[in-house]
Amino acid sequence: MKSAPSNVIAKRAAVFLALAVPFALSGCYFYDGDPVPVSSIGVTPAKGAISAGASCQIFNGLTGALLSSSTTDSSGACSLDVTGYSGPVAVKVCDGVGVTYFDETLTTPANVSMSASNCLLAASPSIPAGGAPKIGVTPLTHFGAVLAGMDPSSTSPSAPSANAISAANTKVKVAILGANFTAFDILDAPTPPKLGGTVTTGDANSLLYGAFIAALSKSIVAAGVGGAGSVFDRFSSLTTEFKTGGGVFTTPAIASAVRVSAAQLQATANAFYGAALTTQITNLAQTLAPNSDGTGPKPAPTGTGTGTGTGTGTGSSS
């Protein structure tokens, strides 16, 4: 193959420079691997499905400055404007006029009214990656946000650093899901159970996360931990203990209740999601619900009983 004459190469170089120099001087640049700023983030709050009208706010996670606000729509989700921002964030979801949440812990699950104090927080060290980023706001993210230093009653929740947020969220994962758990991240957007039928749409991980939150709620109510109030009030009590313990549930009954077993998760999934998650839950059995050191699954229940039996033996004496 013949190479281009030198005068042709020179002309091509001149054209390139003529185009590139003004582009560079304008302050624009080619993508070099840094995160691409996004204009909005989808938010899905979940303590059971939350109805339309709940207040959603997103803040600069370090200064507490409000970035934008919205309300949940009929699907229980909202979209928040984050144009030009990519740093740590705090997301806060609270009660609104006539807002309800689905309480799967009742004998007959039903939608119940949220109260003014029913707020959930989530803290992320950065805007989640992806072209259409999403973030979940759940009891698990609430544990992490408060441990990181955010005040759920504050109008400007903030944490000291992105590292503090990451460390707190990791402690939630270890305490509740186990150090080796990878099926979903606590900041993922879940698909929560709702009144009126079985949930069948959504990717497997979001369904699994929704089922887990429901199973966790049922577990703490069944164990009678966190007080005698609503499930929201119980989670608030557990949040206080988790923060006071520096990322550890120090009361044995609470530490046990938050470690949902694969059997508990499967029963909840069957009730609200059908049997679609059986394979995923079976695959989780060895990483879900850690022992106190975060290394293994929750032991099978043990009990006591009485019985009779016979046996023979041999021995010798001297």
Distance between the termini: 102 Å
Order of helices and strands: HEEEEEEEEEHHHHHHH
Order of strands across the main sheet: 3-2-5-8
Largest sheet: 4 strands, antiparallel
- The tally of strands reads 9
Write a compact overview of the structure shown.
The protein has helices spanning 6-25, 139-147, 162-177, 204-223, 231-244, 252-257, 262-273, 278-284; strands spanning 40-45, 55-60, 66-71, 78-81, 89-94, 100-103, 110-113, 120-124, 134-137.
Offer a few descriptive terms:
8 helices, alpha+beta, single chain, 9 strands, four-stranded antiparallel beta sheet, 318 residues, three-stranded mixed beta sheet, 33% helix
Secondary structure: elements and pairs:
Layout: H1 6-25, E1 40-45, E2 55-60, E3 66-71, E4 78-81, E5 89-94, E6 100-103, E7 110-113, E8 120-124, E9 134-137, H2 139-147, H3 162-177, H4 204-223, H5 231-244, H6 252-257, H7 262-273, H8 278-284
Parallel strand pairs: 1-9
Antiparallel strand pairs: 1-4, 2-3, 2-5, 5-8, 6-7
Helix pairs in contact: 2-3, 2-5, 4-7, 7-8
